[in-house]
Design a protein that fits this description.
The chain is an alpha+beta fold. The protein has one domain. 26% of the residues lie in helices and 37% in strands. Helix 2 packs antiparallel against helix 3.
């Protein structure tokens, strides 16, 4: 799938090299923050009920709060996205393009995919690695729920963004809430409320399964901050792969078709007609 022209790397190699070095310097920080996304170039469907194409931009800030990079996700149609990492000057550092197909579930991160064909990652105008999704089962009762691992592979190894492995106390509270519901409504609600107090962090692991970082969804100020990447003990290559994995997650989320479940019959009819376009 050819990326759109907006993703094109600049023709001046020295400019790209400088931008790549700057990006690596940003990723050398202990953390980076993904700020609240904004949309542009939105094209709407009939009666302005659902968008048909759009561009989603997620600013990235360093620990000092300065906006230094952006993830730009261009969605020409549902289930298709072209993702880029760009500097504040608009120089493209990395990119990927993918069609997300055959949605089978909606997990807490908003991704809904089957196992995907590996998505190539281009970094510094050259092939760098690939991102893919591996589904696995996880549930507090019977292991019947399916959760995705987002795996990013590079020249020197791979990292796994494990969406089932969360903050240990949060997981315990969630499980306690499941079991507590059997003994009454109140115990389940109490445990669920405690779980909400802990961040929705997805663990990032190396190829040996050791935790080397995390992607945290903040509990407070969701309108100001979308997430925080904790790099902890990652190498420079792993930090690149982690950011690429997050770009894949956000691309899948941004390109997912809105659902109109729960709407009145006229809106369901509109959805049916839009599917035929």
């Amino acid at each position: 799938m050819d990326p759109p022209s907006a993703q094109a790397m600049t023709a001046d190699p020295s400019v790209v090299d400088a931008a790549v070095r700057f990006c690596d310097d940003v990723l050398a920080s202990p953390t980076i923050e993904l700020l609240c996304p904004f949309e542009s170039n939105v094209k709407w469907g009939e009666f302005f009920v659902m968008w048909r194409s759009r561009t989603v931009t997620i600013p990235i800030a360093n620990p000092a709060g300065a906006k230094v990079l952006s993830i730009v996700i261009e969605v020409p149609e549902y289930d298709v996205f072209h993702g880029s990492i760009v500097t504040a000057e608009g120089v493209c550092v990395a990119r990927m393009s993918q069609r997300i197909c055959q949605r089978i579930l909606t997990d807490p991160a908003g991704i809904a995919t089957k196992n995907q064909t590996p998505v190539p990652i281009e970094w510094d105008s050259a092939y760098f690695g690939e991102v893919l999704v591996r589904m696995k089962r996880f549930n507090c009762f019977d292991q019947s729920s399916v959760w995705p691992d987002v795996i990013a592979r590079g020249p020197g190894g791979s990292i796994i963004l494990d969406m089932a492995d969360r903050h240990p106390t949060k997981v315990k509270c969630n499980k306690a809430g499941c079991f507590g519901a059997f003994f009454g409504f109140l115990p389940g609600v109490i445990c669920a409320c405690f779980a909400l107090c802990y961040p929705g962090e997805f663990h990032i692991k190396d190829s040996a399964g050791e935790k080397v970082g995390g992607f945290e969804t903040p509990v407070s100020d969701p309108k100001k901050k979308k997430g925080v990447l904790h790099f902890e003990g990652m190498t420079s290559e792993q930090r690149r792969l982690a950011l690429a994995a997050v770009m894949f997650i956000e691309g899948a989320r941004a390109s997912a078709k809105p659902k109109l479940e729960g709407y009145s019959r006229p809106y369901k009819e509109i959805e049916r007609r839009l599917q035929k376009i």
